[in-house]
Predict the structure of SpoVT-AbrB domain-containing protein.
Amino acid sequence: MSQKVIVIGNSLAVTIPKESARELRIGAGDRVEVHVDSERKIVSFRATEKISSAEQKIAKMTANFMRRYDKDLRELARK
């Protein structure tokens, strides 16, 4: 299958056909790991593991904690 490279802002993109995305179980907003083999001129990608809703909640709580107590955490790090 052949896909066209398109311009999005200052970046280039290649679309993934709907059937291929379904087979890979990926959708809009999902993250993928990209590997470039410049010697063989091959670009490949694979879906990254999706984190659970509990892990997402913990990550948000941690980010909020760090944002809220940033000044105090920095002060503790200096001691």
Notes: The chain has three helices and four strands. Strands lie at 5-8, 11-14, 32-37, 42-47. The chain has a mean pLDDT of 89.
